[in-house]
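Example record

One chain of 419 residues, shown exactly as stored in the release files.
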Amino acid sequence: MPRPAERLAVTGWGAITPLGSDPASTWEAMVAGHSGIDLVGDSWATDLPVRIAGRVAPGFDEQLEPLQRRRLDRCAQLALLAARQAWRQAAPHLEGVDPGRVAVVIGTGIGGLSTLEWQHTNLLQSGPGRVNPLTVPMLIPNAAAGQVAIDLGLHGGAHTPVSACASGAEALLLAQLLLLDDRVDVVLAGGCEAPVNRLGLVGFAAMRALSSRNDAPTQACRPYGRDRDGFVLSEGAGMLVLQRSGDLRSTAPAPLGWLLACGSSSDGHHIVAPEPEGLQAARAIADALRRSGLQTADLSFVQAHATGTPIGDLAEARALRRGLGKAADGLPVTAPKGQLGHLLGAAGAVEMILALQGLRQGLVPRSLNADPLDPAVDLAVVKDRSLPLPSGSGERYALKNAFGFGGHNISLVLAALPA
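Predicted structure tokens for this chain:
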């Protein structure tokens, strides 16, 4: 039986998403019911079978230096800006911290896909002489972690878990292991992805993973909905600064929230299809709860992975039933991808920030487009309107799931006091 893990404080966070340029604007847009999904009107997408996606607002890279705009793939650019946001917010707790005791852990599902597509096109159309000499350092998946460590001058290790759509959540698991093993004192952890390009859209569409509702972009992603037909590809980044509670400065602001525990498992079933009964995903859920020391009755809500795929959503619903038992009868479940789309490797970190904001604000956002609910989804999905949590000054808790192609299952248990 695993003993409860030491809780980790979240002292800073940053995010750039299709809903906003930082965590506050992303949360406000989510609560207001806005959608970050739209038609891709670029000329390169006119002949694609799927032409909808979630993209960050144009001009986000104006905050970067000209050299970084030229030499960093869009994926690393997003990560760097979100990391700077988180680092600035955590600054009061970081005074005097040895840079050699600070690690960077940034997950991504693919990495520099835009660079890969662009430079391969250059090779085919213009020959070897037109390929950018920085192609490899721009496209490698660990570029984001490396560039953040360079930018902030951090020397405690730069790590890149690559586990498809679970990558951002797995980065938080690795961060917890590094801190609890006393290898470092601070971890800047999260995920990033920039897959919205010709290759990304056509690749996922070819495997029939994407919604094809080109005529109704804001209604395309339908997590747990009866007529769901796939997920919507999105881009973005989310970063969190994590520290042990004993290392916090008493004169600094209170933590934004806590990472209590991480659970994990692997389906060992299929490279893209989840194990349909949710057997191993349920193990990750139960593992996280055991390690947190909480009971299912302690949870305020569940933030589901729920991408809007017919098989995946049903497998997760069964996993939650198995992992939570009777508590699943009335425990609110929210699914943010109806508004965000699927940020792949960034999803786990961005959505964790949203879950902590929900705990702090005492509100469970509704799951956009989940109505009408699939009758086979036997969960209390919040679908009509956002749900206020019971008032009080005590700590609130949430379970957050993230699953990825290859059968990667990560569950996180989070805590926060009312803001």
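Notes: The mean pLDDT is 97.
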